[in-house]
Structures are given as structure tokens and as C-alpha cells.
């Protein structure tokens, strides 16, 4: 094991960080940047509104399946080599996505883009932990977290601007210059880590892939297939449960499992996985709700929606940069509690939204939520890896990314399904009061009470808007309760000690 002093011998730490973060932001952006371009792709690729969603599904499923194998691949081919290959492959298939000529070619290229992009985020986290001493891990995770959390926020805005100003194909072409700069920087400055012989547990990987792939497919396809009214969803649920169950049994009972079960004996890391699952639910679920809400209820165009949501990213970056400097000077668990309470407060404020308000409450609640999530993410990531043996670090970062992504997928699916259901319920309840016997209707809109078609259509539009707003408010309340429910987990975290170079220190970085 190396000591913290070993890290200070790594030259060009700043240039390495910039190169790594360029690659990370490039990959994270692609999880959301293509969403707003889907309507424009539909006509060019000869797809329907339903089938075009496979452009997103193929990427999500392939990335989820390949993320857990990052640790084995990095040991087998080398961490630096895997990172470089991942960036090259991601950029190449991004360019092919940009020149796709049919839906089939686009889905195939997006699938391969997910395969190569899966390792980028966990490897970037691993390298930042490796090249920094333990007392600087908080600052390193602040930089990494800013890219991870701000990327999805600016993705839809950037995608909308590129689509409107140029063409949807530029959503993918934009990766070329970023990828080239990141590749050159990593090729020159990234330290090489010694390879390690490691057998591959194909059965364990196959079962985990089955569980993760079927779960992601179910979550992504659920809304289109009408959830559990569809045989397809039941089959995918069965496959997912079967895959996860066999994987867990095999991991506990097997001699050389795909993921060493000792990694879960670290209490901080195991608790961190639960926390990051909750953060994934809150971060992307709220991001998935706000753009359609601003469009449907407030009639904001894409660019205006991006500007209204931008302060959320600013709040996140500010809190991360501040907390990165103080996380080692105070108990990080206190920062996590403060962050969760701020996040819950922002969601409580969002539950008071109404169709008559201006954009100011959205901006303020976004800033508060950004501050809260930033306060949670950095100390949580630092504490989760502080006591973990360094030999598990690459596998651990892969699991960390996988659990965050699964949390995001589950969160988006739940709030979207509840939104659809609650709109129907709220519309029925509100419509029940629209009748000629209601004196309030006679006072407010006598023409509607007399069954004038034009007036009734106007009333129906108002009812639709109110039903939709109430449904969004219900989702925000649910996310607030989920946030508060995560608070007791703080008692399971142990405060890390930064004065020693125990098991949590990183392996020595062997320079080229």
C-alpha cells in the first residue's frame, strides 16, 4: 500500500483532472442531451413516436450491463488503457450516431456507445481518488461530483439549443472535439497502474447482466407497455428477479465470485450505496418532471426552460466547491444531514407550485435543491470510500455508478407512472364538481353552466391544467418523504480518520 505522500509525487495532477473531467462530462451529458432531439430524429430515421424511444433504451441498457465489468477489465487490460479505449470507442460511435441513416443503425450505434461509455464514469472517480492524498479526496470528489450532477441539468438545454440552431445530429457531433482533447490529455499525463491477474466469473457476470438489463428494460418500457397490464413487463420483472437472486446466492456461495462480497462488509460503503440510490432518485426524477411541467403548464419554450433550471446547476457547483474545502475540517455526516434537509425543504417548496406563479419560485427552489444535493454528494462520496480497501476501489466505483443509475431509472419510472395515474384521478374528481347545480360555476362562468360548448371547452382546459399541477405536486411531496426517510441512515456512517494511511489509501501510481 502507498502512503498519502505517494500521491504528491504524481505530476500534472491538474491537467490529469481536466482531461478526466472532460471525458466524464461528455459521457454524462449523453444520458440526457439526446432526449430533446427525439422528435426531430423521428422523421429523419423513419421511426414512430413509440419506436424512437429505443434510441434511449439501447444506450441505458448496454451501459448498465457493462458498468459492473469495469473492475475486471481495468485489472486485465490496464486502467489507463481501458480509459483510453473507452473514450475512443465512445467518440467513434457518437460520430456514427450522428450519421445514422435509419432507426436500426441508430439503435445499434447507441448500444455500442453505451458499451464503451460505461467505464468512463467509474474510472474517472477511481483515478481522482488514486492521484490525490486522502486529505484531498473531498476536493477531488467535489470536482467529480460537479460534472456528474451538473451534466444532466445542462444536457436538455444544450441539446435543445443544438437541435434548434443546427441539427439533431450535432447532439452527437459535439462529442468529437471534447473527446479529442480528453484523449490527448490522458494519453500524455495519465499514470499507468500495474495490471493484476484476475479470473473472470462468467456465470456471475451473466446473472448480474440479466438482472440489471431486464430491470432497465422494464423501467424504460413500462410506460409505453402500460406496466403490469403487459405480459412483456411481467417477463422482464421475472427475469430481473431471477438474475439478481441467482447472482446474490452465487456471490455468497461461490469460490471466486464476479464481485468479492467482502466489499459489502465495509459499513460506510454499503450505507453509501443506499444513500446514492436515493440521490439518484431525487436528482433525475425532479429533472425529468420539471421540463414537461414548464412546457405543458407554463408554455415555456426549450431555451427558457433551460434558463429557469440553470440556477439549480449553479447552486450545486457552489455547494460542491465550498464543501470540498471544508469536508475534512468537520464531521461530513453533519454536512449530509444539512444537505438532505435543504433538499427536503426545496421539494416542500415545490409542492406549493401553482399555474398562476411566475418563474421565481422555480428558480429559488432549484437553487436550494442544488445546494442541498451538493452538500450531500461530496461528503457522502468521500465517506463511502474512506474506509474501503484500495484493492476494491475500481469495483466499488463501478457499483456506485450502477446503483446511482438504477436509482435514477426507478425514480423516473415511479414519478412518471404516478403522474399519469394521478392526472386521470384528479381530472375525474375536479370534473365531478362541474355541473349546472354548482352555484360557484354560475357565478364564475354562467355560460359554462348553461352548457355553452365554447365555455365548456375553456373549463375543461382549466381542469386539465389543475389536474396536471396537482399531480406534479403529489410527486414532489413523495420525493420529499423519500428524502426525509433517508435521514436515519446517517447513524450507520462512521466518520473517517484522515490521519493514517490504512486500507483506504490508494495504490501507487506507476508513471510511464
UniProtKB/TrEMBL annotation:
Residues forming coiled coils: none
Name listed for the protein in its UniProt record: EmrB/QacA family drug resistance transporter
PROSITE patterns referenced in this protein's UniProt entry, alphabetically: MFS, SUGAR_TRANSPORT_1
Pfam family, one: MFS_1
Cellular component terms (Gene Ontology): plasma membrane
InterPro entries: EmrB-like, MFS, MFS_dom, MFS_trans_sf, Sugar_transporter_CS
Its membrane topology: Multi-pass membrane protein
Keywords annotated in UniProt: Cell membrane, Membrane, Transmembrane, Transmembrane helix, Transport
GO MF entries: transmembrane transporter activity
Organism name: Manganibacter manganicus
Residues annotated as transmembrane: 12-34, 54-73, 82-101, 107-129, 141-162, 168-190, 202-219, 231-249, 269-291, 297-323, 330-348, 360-386, 398-419, 476-493
Domain Major facilitator superfamily (MFS) profile: start-end pairs: 16-498
PANTHER family, sorted: MAJOR FACILITATOR SUPERFAMILY, MULTIDRUG EXPORT PROTEIN EMRB-RELATED
Subcellular localization, as worded in the UniProt entry: Cell membrane
